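Handoff note, outgoing to incoming analyst
You'll be picking up this chain. Sequence as last confirmed:
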Amino acid sequence: MRKKLEDKLYAKYPDIFRQKDLTPKDTCMCWGITCGDGWYDIIDRLCSIIKERVRYVNSQKSKDKQTYLVPYTKVNLKCEAAQVKQKYGGLRFYVDGGDDFIFGAIRHAELMSHITCEECGLPGKPEGRWISTLCENCRSNRFKKQGEKNEVDYKKGKR
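Most recent structure output, in case you need it:
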C-alpha cells in the first residue's frame, strides 16, 4: 500500500496501529500494510468497526458471572493490529486482543478481499501462479509489465 494511504489509516486509527513503530522482534506491523491500494476501503471499514466495538464494550459495565464478586466493573477490551498483508490472494489481518465480534468482522473483511481487486478496488477474482485477486484490467496490465521486464532481462542475458 502506498505510504500516503498507510499514514492516513495510522492517523485515523492510532489505537489499532499502535504497534507500527515497534521493532521486528516485537511485531510484524513494523513492515507496514503490505497489500495493494485497492483494499484500502476494506481495511478502513474494518478498522472503523473495530474502533466502535472497542469503544462500545469499554463503555459498558460488566454484569457477568466472572465479575460477580466485583459487580459493575469496567471492561477493558483492546485490539491492536499485529500484521496486515496479502496472502494467497486475500487480506490477512492479524490482531492482538479482540473478541468474537471483532474476529467475525475480520473474517468478513478477509472474504471481501477475495472478490475485490487488490490494485484498484473494482470487482476481481483470485487467479494466477502467485495467487492475487485482480480485475481483468489490472491483471492484463501486470502481465504486460512482467512481459516487458522478462524481455529486458532476456536481452541483458539474464534468465
